[in-house]
Amino acid sequence: MKRPVTDWLPITKKEVALRGWDELDVVLISGDAYVDHPAFGTAVIARIIESEGLRIGIVPQPNWEDDLRDFKKMGKPKLFFGVTSGCMDTMVNHYTASKRRRSTDAYTPGGEAGFRPDYAVNVYTKILKKLYPDVPVLIGGIEASLRRVTHYDYWEDRLFPTILETSGADMLVYGMGEMPLRELIRLLQKGVPFESIATIPQTAVLRSVDKSLPVNKNWEDLELHSHGKCLRDKKAFAANFKHVEQESNKVQASRILQKVGEKMLIVNPPYPPMMEAEIDASFDLPYTRLAHPKYEKRGSIPAYEMIRFSINMHRGCFGGCSFCTISAHQGKFIASRSEESILKEVEAVTEMPDFKGYISDLGGPSANMYKMKGKVQSICDRCVSPSCIHPVICSNLDTSHKPMTELYRKVDENPKVKKAFVGSGIRYDLLVDSYNKNNDGSLDEYMEQVVSRHVCGRLKVAPEHTSDGTLKVMRKPSFKHFHEFKKKYDHYNKKHGLNQPLIPYFISSHPGSTEEEMANLATETKDMGFKLEQVQDFTPTPMTVATIIYYTGLHPYTLQPVYTAKSKKEKKNQHLFFFWYKKENFGIIRDKLKKIGREDLIEKLVGDRKKFNKQNIIKDKVKKGNARRKSGSKFNSKRKHRNKR
């Protein structure tokens, strides 16, 4: 049975009228197509606003190059405009690590590119400010969140000030926005003017330096080096990052201040991690879990197809990886949903159209961190470390996997679920005794449960590198622990008569990585039987340790130099070693190994040249023979057709 369009939040003026509304309280502009699913930030924020009793309309992927009718169609909202670029930073969405423009967009119907501008938050906000100068604009989502202070932009290769300055927005919500948004709405409903609101946690505003700072007796202030000084001094910029990262991951954080010209950026401390009831409330909102019916004729939305039958069990990640933005956006403390809420969503998924009995993912940012937290909260309250598991696992961290194993089994008991896969990344280091000293027996129990019941053909994990030096910069464990994990994984596959390949992810050109280390990586993984597929070149994104190192050449915690491959040639040379098994790379790799003085790896990595060439000559002959036969077949087919005529 077809659902009425009023089950979705309105995205056209006609749909607003169908609800009997003649005015909206909030209009939300989004760079993504509208998918009413809890994995899409636009839907979450819109449903939160709706739950507060407000009339909300969404303008997904407005045209910014015509007469701007999309920005005008909903009219002037009573309270404010909300702006988000969507689930990704626009520039990451648009460009590869080599700055090549992508030809597709996973968050657009049919995967079509070109439906959002570069730097979407800036573009959308400036248009709104021109059309409606007296209406406040609130920005949020990952693009705004990770650009909240002075940051390096890889695509322009320069420092940008806070996005509040470049966009002209009135307020920024960073991180997961439910708590600050609810508080903002409550204040506005009490009649508090938008422009006077400046002390909501997890928000940022830009004020004239002449104005006194908003008063909050519970907060201490920490002033960063000014944007101007960061432009002049890379070391000052690097030093800023340590404070930003630490304050973003503290239970009792300071308020961050930074001068931007004649203005003062004020970044209020984050809210404490969401309690179980709070995160449940967000996931239990009345989502249709479907893309808006407007898109039916335009084709499916690739990102939605990937997650439509998935369940997100928690938020946050305490890994603190140097190249990752999850903790910068969601924080390091895990906010877990209740079993009841998760099982309720499982039931909702089983009732979705086209559900065939398979849940594609039962996980989170890091799949096996559900319900993990500090044993003694007062110790966590004093902690300033951005990672709970590097360089070692914190003795105060409860790493029991029992809650996850029990939950997986309860999902398996649902008669409508044939299989529930764990598709999101598993932290393999939490599952080996050499790294995780947990002794409650839950690690092996969880491992066996996952291998025997929840792997979809093959399991992907992310050791990222094999060099201890580079892994230290990455805040990842020694590769020796991956060897132990593979041994355990193979054991459980054999025990259950399964053949499920292990697929490791690796990164080239990460700060700290050299060509020699990439050669060692290729050799060691080849010895383990891997032909690497899931590989990528490091992409600097705002607000990560690795990006600071890439731009400044300095580690932000030590201010000491760290080597980084930056030129196209250097990056290409590192990436090349992933594909030692390709014929066209044989000679190049051989020459590279000679140049760096590692002739000892030639035989191990690319083998005997004569043997290699002989094998490829045979392969080429087979290919050519097949091509001739295929061509002959086509010719005979055409001749028969002509004879019939």
Attribute tags:
globular; 4 domains; 3-stranded parallel β-sheet; disordered C terminus; Transcription Regulator spoIIAA; 38% helix; 9-stranded mixed β-sheet; alpha/beta; Rossmann fold; 24 strands; 645 residues
Question: How do the strands and helices of this protein lay out in sequence?
Answer:
Layout: H1 13-18, E1 26-30, E2 35-36, H2 41-51, E3 56-60, H3 69-72, E4 80-84, H4 90-94, H5 120-131, E5 137-139, H6 142-145, E6 151-153, E7 158-160, H7 163-167, E8 171-173, H8 178-189, E9 203-208, E10 221-223, H9 227-232, H10 234-248, E11 255-260, E12 263-267, H11 276-283, E13 290-291, H12 302-307, E14 310-312, E15 314-315, H13 326-330, E16 335-336, H14 339-350, E17 358-359, E18 361-363, E19 373-374, H15 377-382, E20 397-398, H16 402-412, E21 419-420, H17 442-453, E22 459-464, H18 468-474, H19 480-495, E23 502-508, H20 515-527, E24 535-537, H21 545-552, H22 568-576, H23 586-595, H24 600-606, H25 609-644
Parallel strand pairs: 1-3, 1-4, 4-5, 5-8, 10-11, 14-18, 17-21, 22-23, 23-24
Antiparallel strand pairs: 2-13, 6-7, 8-9, 9-12, 11-12, 15-16, 19-20
Helix pairs in contact: 2-8, 10-21, 16-17, 17-19, 23-24
Please, could you describe this protein's structure?
The protein is globular, with a radius of gyration of 27 Å. The protein contains 25 helices and 24 strands. The protein has 4 domains: 5-267, Rossmann fold; 309-456, Transcription Regulator spoIIAA; 457-606, Transcription Regulator spoIIAA (2-Layer Sandwich); 608-639. Helix 10 (234-248) runs antiparallel to helix 21 (545-552). The model is unreliable at 637-645 (pLDDT under 50). It has 645 residues and is α/β, with parallel strands linked by helices. The strands form 8 sheets. The chain has a 9-stranded mixed beta sheet with strand order 3-1-4-5-8-9-12-11-10, sandwiched between helices. A 3-stranded parallel beta sheet has the order 22-23-24. Strand 11 and strand 12 (263-267) form a beta hairpin.
